[in-house]
Amino acid sequence: MGKKIILFIFAFCLGGAALGLGIGAGSSIAMHFLPQMEISSDTSEPAETSITTVRVNPLVVPVDTQEPSFVEIIPEAKAAVVSIHVTGPMGHSRRDVPGSGSGFIFAEDEDFIYIATNNHVIENTNSILISIDDTAQVAASVVGHDRSSDVAVIAASRAEMEEIDVPFAIARLGDSDVLRMGDSVIAIGNAMGEGKTVTRGIISALSLNIEIPDRRDRLILDVLQTDAAVNRGNSGGPLVNQNGEVIGIVTAKLIGSDIEGMGYALPINNVLPLLMDIMETGSVRRTWLGIDPEDISEFIRSLFNLPSTGVLVRRVIDDSPAEEAGIIRGDLIIQFNGRRISSTEDLQAALEISRPGDTAVLRIYRDGEQMEISVVLGARMH
What is the pLDDT of residue 215? Predict the structure, then answer.
């Protein structure tokens, strides 16, 4: 299971408060070489006054022809990215204030183009305008959004897009499951609300859980970490690999005087099914196991000689996937599809990246023994 990080600052999209903080993408790792050193002795003087000198000859750093260049792929990738400008109430204010964010076109039909973004970019807004070229704007409407995963889909009229005569593209989507630490990426977004810019970095970490406190409750998101420079307005924009494919949605970053280059993106493989659900139905089909889980204290684990990890099944809901699979009250769920489960947050994160209809293999501790139980996950609308 990914390590947990408390996300101290998470800006929302309206007004002077930082709208969607984004995360960026890709810089390649430079190669460093130790200089070649030549040591010589000056023998013109008597031995007792001899001086040994050191001459440093820096080695030439060769050009790595395999080093990725984003110059060729940026135009196509950028054509799928939209700048988002919104208005809506901020805090206790009754008047509308402006905000900004980013998104990318991921689907289309005869009537609309569909844009992926963050929930916090468009939540509680009264108007949404999008732009491809940062000049001509068209209105967009909310198709649906999901707060717990921080994703949303907005749509713009295809006819209006064609009327302003600005070319656009459908983003090519990549595979976030094959990413490696150190892979080069770029972030494209409406930084500071002043138009699209590109920043470059690498994938700094994979499969992290971040916890975001807000005015209502906590959000726990499964994310990638990147070190690319990002600013408010980048939220909702794409994180793009060296093939020009979207592999993440910029969603948050850490801010502080002693923090640099810690941005986060939702992996595209995790959120694409959610985006498709929203586009087709206006809401997300949430994966359902059908239990009430409970965390266990270290004292209780020690007292009853329980494993060091695992979540207690406090109740099994009638006619649920868990009941049908044979899970019972008192079971300890240790793993979910190979992911270590140490808390209810871990279990929720594992469910978030699963889909209704998937078969999950749960490792269970029961009566002093471990066993595996296969569960066909259900669905509930959210």
Answer: 55
